[in-house]
Design a protein that fits this description.
Helix 1 links the parallel strand 4 and strand 5. The relative contact order is 0.18. By secondary structure, the protein is of the alpha+beta class. The chain has an eight-stranded mixed beta sheet. A two-stranded antiparallel ribbon has the order 3-9. The chain is built from five helices and ten strands, in the order E-E-E-E-H-E-E-E-H-H-E-E-E-H-H. 21% of the residues lie in helices and 22% in strands.
Length: 221
């Protein structure tokens, strides 16, 4: 298990295909060479990306400690390449870390990875597709297709800061005693909302917003 690439976005304000004129977005992530420092960025609303040099434009909906780093598997990009019939380079889905050999969607909430020598990341939640992602890909019905695949990639918190670069090993150093995976939470939040009460088994590792939705759904049943 290792990093296939480390990707950052500088934030673009020039016109992009399909976007409103002058719209800024950080979704255009591209591989970089050399080490990148990673640290907890701070709470949502004020903290952006955990990667130095990476831009988060919409701090209301993106970034912050629970979404400090976004990981997506190269294997899933390859599958989408075959399905869409187009090349998808590392970073094409806006991910910071393109992994190889890592079961990103099967990772458990609260699972911890050591990446490289010092960085420790904790799995926090799945990525939910938004209009920016759909516009960026430019594929008809993209949000529906991505949702049905239930392989969204994982947001991660920074537990211990460090530097990362392409080729760094990824090691699972802690696996919680529950079965709440990224894929499970994604399905619970999208097409199978009756699964929501089950996400509570992830305990304190579950982001507050997801916990509140699960508690509200449970109370309404």
């Amino acid at each position: 298990m290792h990093l296939h690439s480390v990707n950052i976005g500088r934030g673009r304000s020039e016109d992009l295909p399909g976007f409103a004129a002058g719209l800024a977005t950080g979704i255009d992530k591209r591989p970089v060479t050399g080490p990148v420092a990673v640290a907890a960025p701070g709470p949502r609303g004020t903290g952006g990306s955990g990667l130095a040099g990476d831009t988060v434009v919409n701090l209301r909906h993106h970034g912050g400690d629970d979404q400090a780093v976004y990981a997506f598997a190269r294997e899933d990009l390859d599958r989408w390449e075959r399905e869409l019939g187009r090349a998808l380079p590392d970073g094409a889905f806006g991910e910071n870390l393109t992994t190889s050999g890592v079961d990103v969607n099967g990772a458990l909430i609260g699972e911890r990875w050591r990446v490289g020598a010092d960085l420790v990341l904790e799995v926090s939640s799945p990525r939910i597709p938004c209009r920016t992602f759909a516009t960026w890909l430019g594929e008809e019905g993209w949000v529906k297709r991505f949702t049905q695949a239930a392989a969204p990639g994982a947001y991660l918190r920074v537990i211990a800061p460090g530097e990362v670069r392409a080729g760094d090993p990824v090691t699972v150093v802690h696996r919680p005693d529950h079965a709440v995976s990224i894929s499970y939470v994604y399905r619970a939040r999208t097409l199978e909302r009756d699964l929501l009460p089950g996400v509570l088994a992830a305990g304190d590792a579950l982001p507050a917003g997801i916990r509140e939705k699960a508690l509200a759904h449970t109370a309404a049943r």
